[in-house]
Amino acid sequence: MSESVTFEPKYRLDYQAPAFRIHTTNLTFELDDHATRVTNSMELERLGDDDTLTLDGDDLELAALSLDGVALDAKAYQRTKDKLKIFRVPKRFLLTVVTIIDPARNSSLEGLYKSAGTFCTQCEAEGFRRITYYLDRPDVLSVFTTTIHAPKASYPFLLSNGNCIEKFETGSIQTVTWHDPFPKPAYLFALVAGDFDLLEDSFTTQSGRVVTLQLFVDRGNLPRADFAMAALKRAMAWDEQRFNLEYDLDIYMVVAVDFFNMGAMENKGLNIFNSKYVLADSETATDQDFINVEAVIGHEYFHNWTGNRVTCQDWFQLSLKEGLTVFRDQEFSADMGMRAVKRIQDVRIMRTHQFEEDASPMAHPIRPDKVLEMNNFYTVTVYNKGAEVIRMLHTLLGETGFQKGMKTYIHRHDGQAVTCEDFVRAMEDANDVNLSQFRHWYAYAGTPEVDVDYQFDSTTGSGSLTLQQHTPDTPGQSNKPPMHIPIRLEFVNAHGERIQVVSEHAPVELIELTERRQVVHFSSPEEKVIPALLADFSAPIRLRFEQPEDDLIAILNGAHDAFLRWDASQRIYLNALRNAIRQDDSVELSERFIDVLETAIRNQNTDPALLSLLLQPPSEETLAQEYKVIPIAAATRVVAELKSLLALSLRDALLARYAATDWQQRSFNGNAVAIRMCTNAIAQLLAYHHEDEVILRELDKQFSQSNTMTLAMGALAAAVHAEHPAAERYLAHFADQWGHEKLVMDKWLAVQSSAPGSGTAQKVELLTHHPAFDWGNPNRIYALLATFTHNLNQLHAEDGSGYALIEQAISRLNQQNPQVASRLLSPLLKWRSIPEPQQTQLKRTLERLQTLDNLAPDLHEKLSQALA
Ligand code: ARG
Ligand code: ZN
Question: Which portions of the sequence form the region Disordered (predicted)?
Fold first, then answer.
């Protein structure tokens, strides 16, 4: 039976300022696997008249409690499951709480936990309450001093936030004290104790502060840490140049741990990272891994200002720090090279995962209004759509105006816990603009749809674009007002040359769509004028604009903006896929389009990275977005058919281009990366020719002779996804070679669970018993099982095997690690868009999950939302 009565959501509008201040927090940890003793002494100040102090706590054993040095008797306080109330407290007082916790039994990886011999913490969002009783909310900022005691032999490094102020040994026990001068909320607290290899470097800030940089990795992994260290220095320099923001402590530490629920955490002065976002060398990491390391290192570093110095008032404001920081890390990556590719990759994330979330039962605005389990809101909506909203501000205000707004924001709010509203107001005030309508982006969920109607009369030289917008209803929100949508655009003529058109003497380059229906008139002397809308994906919307293939090809050849050119190719592919599904016939591409591709492939001047994107048709998940009820089997069929058609029609050109690969080139630089992207994209297509001896030889060569993980993985993935007969041989060889490298074996697990062929669920089930897999490690679960939940065809297999596999995994993880369980659940929530007979099976699966014993709030929230 589900006990929904015990789950109480919180509402954004119920926010109340804290009733107490915690001036200082003095923590002492006596580390022990099963009985770590935490002594927490806080200098508190009561702000109002209510003299009851209510602290948060979760799963804590209380060992002692005293106020101003006097132990409290039982009548002076009250304990419930998740609160500690202390009655009749004075105006200012010192409260000391001693708790005992069990880090070795903590499998949720929230709070203080021990894994693989290391103690570490994860406190965002509400993990600190699993360490001690506290005002565990982001608007309570305190100065922390942390003392750690532990046996030196097992834990030579004892780390916490800020500066190390004392260190000594008593027998075998080492004691280290850290002091963080910057007041911070508890979610930014961190502690690490373990044995590591240490990579040390330094960075001198623009004002001359010499910062010690320390990177802690598992013993033996030092050579794999160089890239992350270099990326950190690039990030520090970039934030000074582009945002004029400089680091503020004398030490910056990054620790890589193997057991971590998320990517990384920006704890003040002591970032804790999932090791997959730190460790990278060309033998074991792909180029994409390198790119991810740089992005995440940047992201956590950039939080020092956008998140730490200026933090969130409450968790509903999460996008204040995450949307902004994602925008900043995206710009950092773009400025480090391959801006266009980075943008297109970010757009792909939006269009597949974020648009899907916006259409799901868990749809929420970037600033949610109602939250049951905060961990459920670290989403592509809050992060990536949040970043798109910041990007739109950047588009509307320009780089100069945006930076003026940033300056006002930081200046006004340094040291404060603030809201999204404060951010928008800073942008408004600094630029003297009115963003009232723009604020809707924070308030409304769902992906706005913009329909376009286009007319051009060459005899009069006048044309018009009619735009109509509508945002679909989402749970709890209907009849939404029109949004403020910046639509960048270009025009090309019939020869695929970029042209300018004018409206009232000004070139038409940006339309600010604010009405439900808006008409833009323009004039041009050209014979033919083809509009190309949404340059740089200037707004997170769905654009509905049917343009003939000839026009799309003109855009593909002539638009200046790389996103527009790529998008034209994707629209051509999508049309071909949808037609084939509609007519229940094989996929067709026009000769004209094939010619365009062939020319691009044969032209040595075509940027190989952009070419690789052109050669990747939309995924099944992207195609699925086009349907209310997803024709799953047909979608899988036509996507595979399209790739094999491309391989067939372009075989010789592809092989010629492929031959240009330099198999010995290993370095991670823009050009080498671009060429490898292209090589892999070509392999993904050619592998559909199962009988072709030449291709088999090439794939074999790529798999075994290239000495980069990028190319080896490229060949392996190509073979597995195209169900090429060489796949089994490659898989076996790969496992032999890399069996001892956990992060590498994650790739091996993931490639198998994303295979389209039938019986994948059974194979994945078998792999859960393979030594490379571990139910206790989130990386393994994400690689094998979360990847499987995105395998549209096999997750929704008609025999129910996909659902059974994931149901079993979620049941097992419900209590062990609810955050991970909850991530596996998300792709199952869209049961209403799955055809029968699977729809009924899926719904039953969700209903059964709802009856799990001790159902975690993370799962309860999603299930009740989906089944409502
Ligand atoms: N603030 C971290 C980051 O984005 C993520 C923390 C995620 N925590 C969580 N409980 N889901 O950099
Ligand atoms: Zn973040």
Answer: 461-481
